[in-house]
């Protein structure tokens, strides 16, 4: 029986792409770069994803992700007079300006809190995620928050999940379910430590055989838990 729910944040509980686009456009305006087109937003989003996936594979450090993604993006667009570090700081400052919930996630977590222990597990930067979670109200609903910068390891590293398990009382893995949108982070991490996995898959992509469940709407989790 499932007793513990581990929730990813960006792309699962919160619409990260909307926040990303909003902050990127505002950062362009702040530095006097004019309008950041939707095409440029998509270009940056692809670069950002690539860097985070490299982090998950242990190929780069978090610092190299945060600065490197913008160094590559700015160079591709011929922007040489602004440092990637300064651009990153302004961008991150604005990531929590827009909070867009996926599938009315606060109400779902509130209802589930009467029956299950719930925890946030996220790889986001500490300063960004701390502000975002406080503003979203999830801090008041879940039983704990685990941010990789504070844990010292990133998902899908086994050390990240070992830290979480130790902190929540070493539950039986059979009683734990992780819900997230990333195959390479959330699902891979869940598989490595032997817990149940639920892939949030709104685009209805084919489900890999090694994943237990897939949902296209967060409220479908109730069918799994039943």
Total number of helical segments? 10
Low-confidence stretches: none
Walk across the major sheet and give the strand order.
3-2-1-4-5-6
Strand content: 5-15%
User: Terminal Cα separation, in Å?
Assistant: 9 Å
Shape: globular
What integer is the average pLDDT?
Answer: 96
H/E element string?
EHHHHHEHEHHEHEEH
Helix content: 40-55%
- Give the class from helix and strand content and strand pairing: alpha/beta
* CA radius of gyration: 18 Å
For the report, how would you describe the main beta sheet?
A: 6 strands, parallel
Number of strands: 6
Key structural traits:
single chain; 226 residues; alpha/beta; 10 helices
Describe what this molecule looks like in 3D.
- This protein is α/β, with parallel strands linked by helices and about 230 residues long.
- The chain is about 45% helix and about 10% strand.
- The protein has ten helices and six strands; from the N terminus they run E-H-H-H-H-H-E-H-E-H-H-E-H-E-E-H.
- It has helices at about 15-30, 40-55, 60-75, 85-95, 105-110, 125-135, 150, 160-165, 185-190, 220-225, and strands at about 5, 115-120, 145, 175-180, 195-200, 215.
- Strands 3-2-1-4-5-6 form a six-stranded parallel sheet, with helices on both faces.
- Helix 6 links the parallel strand 2 (about 115-120) and strand 3 (about 145).
- Helix 1 (about 15-30) crosses helix 4, helix 2 runs antiparallel to helix 3 and helix 3 crosses helix 4.
- It starts with a strand and ends with a helix.
- About 35% of the residues are buried.
- The mean pLDDT is about 95.
């Amino acid at each position: 029986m499932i007793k513990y729910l581990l929730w990813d944040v960006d792309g699962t509980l919160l619409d990260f792409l909307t926040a990303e686009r909003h902050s990127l456009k505002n950062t362009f305006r702040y530095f006097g770069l004019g309008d950041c087109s939707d095409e440029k937003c998509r270009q940056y989003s692809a670069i950002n994803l690539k860097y985070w996936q490299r982090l998950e594979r242990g190929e780069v450090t978090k610092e190299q992700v945060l600065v490197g993604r913008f160094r590559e993006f700015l160079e591709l667009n011929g922007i040489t007079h602004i440092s990637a570090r300064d651009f990153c700081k302004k961008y991150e400052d604005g990531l929590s300006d827009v909070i867009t919930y996926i599938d009315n996630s606060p109400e779902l977590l509130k209802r589930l809190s009467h029956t299950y222990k719930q925890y946030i597990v996220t790889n986001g930067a500490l300063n960004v995620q701390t502000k975002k979670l406080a503003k979203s109200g999830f801090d008041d609903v879940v039983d704990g928050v685990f941010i990789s910068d504070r844990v010292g390891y990133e998902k899908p590293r086994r050390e990240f999940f070992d830290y979480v398990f130790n902190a929540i009382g070493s539950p039986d893995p059979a009683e734990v379910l992780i819900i997230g949108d990333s195959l390479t982070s959330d699902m891979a991490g869940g598989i490595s430590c032997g817990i149940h996995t639920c892939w949030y898959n709104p685009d209805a992509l084919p489900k890999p055989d090694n994943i237990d469940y897939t949902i296209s709407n967060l409220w479908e989790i109730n069918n799994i838990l039943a």
